[in-house]
Amino acid sequence: MLRVCWKGARAAARQCVCGKVSAHPLQHCRRYTTAGDSGSSAGKIVAASLLTVGGGVGGTILYAKWDPKFRANVEKSVPYSDQVFEMVLGPPPPPPVPLQKKPVKVEPLQISSLSETTKESKAKAKKSDPAPVEAPPAVEEAPAQTLQEASAEAAHIISAISDVPSVPAPGTSDDSPADPTPAAEECHPEPALTERPAEEVSARLAQQDKAEQDALAALTAGLEETLGSSAKITLQAIGAQEVALTAITAHTDKLKEAMDSQTPPDEKSAQWKALNEALSERTRAVDEAGDALLKAKEELERLREVINSAKQAKIDAARPQILAAEENLHSMIVDLDKVVTKVQTAQSEAKVVSQYSELVNEAKAQFQQELANITPEIQANWKGLSGKLSVDDLNSLIAHAHRRIDQLNRELAEQRVREQIHIETALEQQKLEDRKALEKAVVSALEHSREDMRLEQEKKVQEMREVMEAEMRTQLRRQAAAHTDHLRDVLKVQEQELREEAQEILTSKMMEQETHYRRLTQEQLDTFTLDMNAAYARLKGIEEAIDSHVTAEEEARKAHQLWLSVEALNYTLKSAGANSPTEPLEGAVRAIKESCAENEFAQALATAIPEESLSRGIYSEAFLRSRFYDIRRLARRVALIDETRNSLYQYFLSYLQSVLLFEREQEAPPAKLAPEDLDTFKLLAYATYSIERGDLELAAKLINQLRGESQRVAQDWLKEARLTLETKQVISLLSAYANAVGLGTTQAP
Amino acid sequence: MSEKELGQKWDRCLADCAIKVGTGLGLGIVFSVVFFKRRTSPIAFGTGLGLGMAYSNCQNDLRSHYVLHSNVAKEP
After folding, report:
1. Coiled-coil region(s) at which residues (chain A) (predicted)?
2. Which parts of chain A have pLDDT scores under 70?
């Protein structure tokens, strides 16, 4: 009953190890009776497990839907899950696209916004699209148009910004490569920034220079002509004016002379004639002077016009000439004015004198008339009538003279009274006239000074310009010099570089050639050396082969000897009799020692043979086998005897035990000895088995495990067995060694 | 030969036993005849004595290997 239960428990344990049925085997019998309960519990278990699994799967799917990385992980780790996911969730989401376009868009948008604000701030009517999608083309267009507009501040800023996108190579945006060209076409042609070829430039420059030269020549010619003509005419005018001046002064002098009635009467008529002549001369001269002045003024105006046109032509080279012409003009004008003023003063003086003379004449005429009234007979030259006059006439004359004197006195008194007023009025008049003259003089002087200053300024400007030109020329010259220096340096450097390059190429080619030549020679040498080496090696090989042959034969002989001696030793082993040991192995071992004197291994082995075997010889295995059975019997009989149990009674018991104990004579020994195998009888059985199979070694090992009296009994046999085994081992080693050596040195026939 | 030792021991034992028993018997007989009026007890006694001595001898002989010998160190 117990055993049945034990066996059932064992079976259950085995099943538990397999992991199948968890139910206790004893419950098998219960199963038939309480099927319902276990069924429901099983059902509950099944339901719970299904729920858990379903929950896990559902949760996994939901999370995978939310997190694609987790989904990827699961797909990687669990096979076929990707199919499940695809069925349930659809294809996996694509990897996120890198946002590269955004930062590029920012710049054009900014520019477009700026341009848009500027557009709004300025006048409307633009054809650019305000849509941000077309911001890049708008950017291209708007700046061009704003450039067109050329409003001062905004255009400056926008041109500074728009210079970047309006440059032909599209640098900012990647998505409008074709727009710059239509934008460039749309806007008005901007000043072409292309470089004209050098010849064209020089031709144009030459053309310009020639044109300039021509203009300059024409201008100078015109200027000189007009200058010359105006100078001539001015000189004429001045001459005329001076003539007029002299005429006037002459006339005035003559008049003054005529006023003084100191000259005799007959010269008076000549004087009056001369006076008339002078007067006519003066008028003529004055007219002439006036004409000449007009002409001069005309000419000067023409000159001024020419100068102005020359100035407008803006030819720099003509400036000094223009300046000189202007100076001349100014000096001529000044001279003319001076002469004119002189003439005018002379004229005014003459006027004064003529007025005086007129007054005098008038007075004289009046006097004469009075005289004529008083003395009607005396008509003509009353100066020569001093002897013809009567007393009445003289009295009347004197009375008239007295009356006249009275009158004149009265007039003088009146005049004296009115003197002050007259003087004041005269002063006032004079002041007025003076003021007018002053004004005129001031105005003319101002004009002259202004003109002077302007001329001086122009002169200074001219000078400065010349100075500047000279300086610029020196700077340019310096720059040219620097340029030439730089060019020279660059050329030098280039030359150096080129030279180095050429040198390098030359050296490399040379090196190539050299290496080629060297390689060829080396190859030749190498082949020769190779051949020599090969021949030498062959020779050496042959020598070595011969030597090795010799040594090999030597070795073979030695090995043969060794082998023979080992065979002899083996043979001596066979000389063991049934009960007697072999011959002492000494001789054979000595022979071995002699035969392999230099072989350390063999020497060591030969010395390892125990002394007993050398001196006494060893027993054969058969002998040991037979002896073993005696040992066995004896050991069985004294199996119970050891240190504690060794009385005679124990001996009897032990004998009894040996007789009564039935067991197999031979029993195969296990691979490992367990403690229960250390029983004497068991050991003996194992040993018998081993001995019968010829395994003396194992038998000896087992016998070694005996304890107590059995051990004591088997001691000798064990010793013998050990000896035999040792010797046999050494000999087998030796023979194996000899065989190996013989094999090694054997030459194939 | 260690295995012969036991045999030798047994031989000695037996020989000794025979001698002792014989001697005991003889002496017993002698004593019984001479001293104890032909009673059998001294014979038995003598035999037993002989047997016992032989037994003891034999046992000692067989035990001799296992007996521990102690050396008392002499004090200097």
Report:
1. 286-313, 391-418
2. 1-39, 95-196, 259, 261-266, 268, 314-318, 374-389, 576-579, 582, 745-749
A627 C-beta neighbours (distance < 10 Å), count: 19
CA distance A561 to A316: 132
* Rounded CA separation A377/A396 (Å): 13
CB contact under 8 A, A712 and B2: yes
CA dihedral A182, A187, A189, A193 (to 10 degrees): -70
Contact state of A713 with B66 under an 8 Å Cβ cutoff: no
Mapped onto helix, strand or coil, the DSSP state of residue A539 is: helix
Give the integer Cα–Cα distance in Å for A680 and A663. Answer: 12
d(CA A56, CA A63): 11
Q: How far apart are CA A670 and CA A653, in angstroms?
A: 29
Give the Cα separation of A402 and A624 in Å (integer): 225
Hey, what's the torsion of the CAs at A582, A584, A590, A595, to 10 degrees? -10
**Residue of B6, B51, B60, B65 to mutate, testing the A interface (most A Cβ within 10 Å of its Cβ):** B6
Report pLDDT digits (tens) over A494-521. Answer: 999 999 999 999 999 999 999 999 999 9
Match 């038998």 to its residue by tokens.
A699
- Chain-chain contact of B66 with A634 (C-beta, under 8 angstroms): no
Cβ-based contacts under 8 A for chains A and B: 35
CA distance A581 to A255: 205
Going by C-alpha positions, the residue among A23, A26, A53 that lies closest to residue A39 is: A23
Both tokens of B23, joined, read 């001697």
Q: Between chains, do A648 and B58 touch, taking CB under 8 Å as contact?
A: yes
Q: How many CA atoms lie within 13 A of A451 on its CB side?
A: 17
| A549-605: pLDDT as tens digits | 898 788 778 778 888 888 888 888 777 666 677 677 777 788 878 877 777 888 888
As a whole number of angstroms, the distance between CA A648 and CA B55 comes to 8
Question: Is A506 buried (19+), middle (13-18) or exposed (0-12) by CB count in 10 A?
Answer: exposed
Q: Rounded distance, CA A173 to CA A371, Å? A: 122
Cα–Cα dist A738/A559, whole Å? 6
Q: How much is the ipTM here?
A: 0.89
Taking the mean position of all CA atoms in its chain, how far away is CA A286?
A: 89
Residue A182 CA to residue A131 CA, distance in Å, equals 18
Nearest CA in chain B to A631: B3
Structure tokens at A619: 């027993």
In order, the DSSP letters of A188-242 are: --PPP-PPPPHHHHHHHHHHHHHHHHHHHHHHHHHHHHHHHHHHHHHHHHHHHHH
Q: What 3-state class would DSSP assign to A130?
A: coil
**CA dihedral in degrees (B53, B55, B61, B65; nearest 10)?**
-130
Find all residues with CB under 8 Å of A714, minimum gap 6, and list them: A631, A635, A703, A706, B2, B3
pLDDT in the model for residue A108:
44
Q: How far apart are CA A70 and CA A84, in angstroms?
A: 14
Count of residues in chain A = 749
d(CA A92, CA A115): 45
Round to whole Å and give the CA distance between A384 and A373.
18
